[in-house]
Amino acid sequence: MFGFSPQELAAIALSVKVAVVATLCSLPFGIALGWLLARARLRGMLLLDTLLMLPLVVPPVVTGYALLVLFGRQGAIGAFLHDALGITLAFRWTGAALACAIMGFPLMVRAIRLSIEAVDPRLEQAAATLGANRWRVFFGVTLPLAWPGVLAGAVLAFAKALGEFGATITFVSSIPGQTQTISSAIYGLMQVPGGESGIWRLTVVAVAISFCALLLSEWLARRQRANAGTRA
Amino acid sequence: MTWDLAFEVRRGGFTRALEVRSEHRVIALVGASGAGKTSLLHAIAGLLRPTRGHVVVDGQCLFDAVRRIDIPAHRRRIGYVFQDARLFPHLDVRGNLLYGLRGDAVREPRFGMEHVVELLGIGPLLARDIHGLSGGETQRVALGRALLSQPKILLLDEPLSMLDMDRRDELLPYLQRVRDDARLPMIYVSHYPDEVRRIADEVHRIPG
């Protein structure tokens, strides 16, 4: 199919799997933190916001190394996960999903936070006077109105996860068929002579998926801004 | 004593106080815009915490600063009709009406769906999207939504202010019907004294 080698197809499939799992697993946390940043008035919000944004600016190789130190077989968390639950993350695709989730998290949280901030708090007040507790207000009013923006954040995180390179290759290396994603496959092909055609094929795939994801994310974000307005 | 209200709220650097003790079921608060009428209603509804004082309606204490009582808004059983209606844009008219009808009230509501729909003449609107509603229809749906949440108290914040003069005379009879039908303690806020006289038994002026 389009001249893809089995190894390239495996890299594409793994990238998509890693990105989907990373996005779905981080979404509940993204929603919770986005809501907290948008609505809660607590001390230390600025600090929390800064910490959450950190993966966006820290060199990805540093994030990857930190993951290795914490979640490696000898790491504080990694040793516990391995011994108590039998879960290994380092040098596995699940580790790639963790790395991608962390790298995409700032983008996801920011988008969700903005979409929740755009929901008119007066509607939440109205829901409270109608007998809805905090949970019902959130799930019955806030989340449905913020939903397109939440999806936009998820799609953005998916796109970011798909392209993640530095933290992933540091944490899980680039084992063909196991942890080799599109990005690390391209990097690998650059190290060998005659890899150009493979590089081009994977590059086109990477750009195409990223473009579509961004387009979808922008479209959703616009829809949300149009919907959650103060009409009614 | 139906109303025993004595409290103070702070909003944007201003302090507003209300002191009303009344046996009348339907009272009105009038005052110029900016007199803080909405802040006072918010305090009664539990959306804004008074800095001191108490809110007691029909013998039930909703707030008391000294006794540290502060019932959260969602448990006060207050039907609040906002000045700007605040219908939920992601629900249709029926979804809005039914939002607050839950729990035990579903089986034996004091204000049932059919009755409220009939009372307010909103039957033809049920399947409609809320964006197409006129100002008067919007307020009738807001009123119905409040009644269906089975409130023990009704707060109406200038429900006619979004309407032009002709439309006010259309909505006013519905407000009077709700007043006579629901038999609930009710506060009506307005800055038009003539409108208030047609609704309330007693008028309290808020100094601006």
Characterise the protein shown here.
The complex is a heterodimer of chains A (232) and B (208). Helices cover 78% and strands 0% of the residues of chain A. The mean pLDDT of chain A is 91. The termini of chain A are far apart. Chain A has one domain (6-227): MetI-like fold (Orthogonal Bundle). With 232 residues, chain A is an all-alpha fold. Chain A contains ten helices and no strands. Chain A has helices spanning 6-39, 45-57, 60-71, 76-85, 93-117, 121-129, 134-163, 166-172, 182-190, 196-227. Chain B has a domain at 3-90 and 153-205: 3-Layer(aba) Sandwich (Rossmann fold). Chain B contains six helices and ten strands, in the order βββαββββαααβαβαβ. With 208 residues, chain B is an alpha/beta fold. Chain B has helices spanning 37-45, 93-98, 113-120, 135-148, 165-182, 193-197, and strands at residues 3-11, 14-22, 26-30, 52-57, 60-64, 69-70, 78-81, 153-157, 186-190, 202-205. In chain B, the strands form two sheets. Chain B has a five-stranded antiparallel β-sheet with strand order 2-1-4-5-6, covered by helices on one side. The interface between A and B is medium-sized, with 22 and 29 residues.
